[in-house]
């Protein structure tokens, strides 16, 4: 069982969560600290022994990738949660991601490019779970209102299918105030506040939208939840570049 270093700060009367099959050991694929904060605290409150699995070669550029990973690691360390960093070959993994995305560069958010992206990450998570004694894996991705939960759950179940001893836990982390607590925890912890989904094409499209509104491009590593001093004024226009 995971040993907690710090008591849970959020004072919430949560229901007790029971993973599929009554298992008490779960592998949590995490995309970032803001999305996983509520998921982590909810599982801790239910006494679930879980490990964070971080594999997100879609995140671009590398500076943004490191910001998101380090915030996630910081929060995991606060509670003594094991953190598996599987982006040990980030450069080759990101090249593979771009190769898989070829021909989908202009697909919309929640489209087939996102399905490919979820599949790639969940397949790795499922393989790790199978090889390391986890019978249940889940993800923090679905808590975001910007994501298509049906799409994410479909990818999760598909990733688990090759393994007879593994299931994907498609719990709705948004319900019962989960989405609101996600923001509450992010502000309490002053998490880094990312302004786009993560991939190069999401950054491109987000900046294109901002430009159409007369706003400046996204500045990496600037905004933090609950810290007004990190706000910046959207005013100038710059050229949008997608790097590979």
From TrEMBL:
Keyword vocabulary terms for this entry: 4Fe-4S, Disulfide bond, Iron, Iron-sulfur, Metal-binding, Oxidoreductase, Queuosine biosynthesis, Redox-active center, tRNA processing
Pathway entry: tRNA modification; tRNA-queuosine biosynthesis
Single biological process term from Gene Ontology: tRNA queuosine(34) biosynthetic process
InterPro entries the record matches: QueH
Keyword tRNA processing part of the UniProt annotation: yes
Ligand binding ([4Fe-4S] cluster): 31-32, 114, 117
Signal peptide: none
EC number: 1.17.99.6
Family statement: Belongs to the QueH family.
Official protein name in the record: Epoxyqueuosine reductase QueH
Originating species: Neisseria flavescens NRL30031/H210
Phylogenetic placement of the source organism: Bacteria, Pseudomonadati, Pseudomonadota, Betaproteobacteria, Neisseriales
Gene: queH
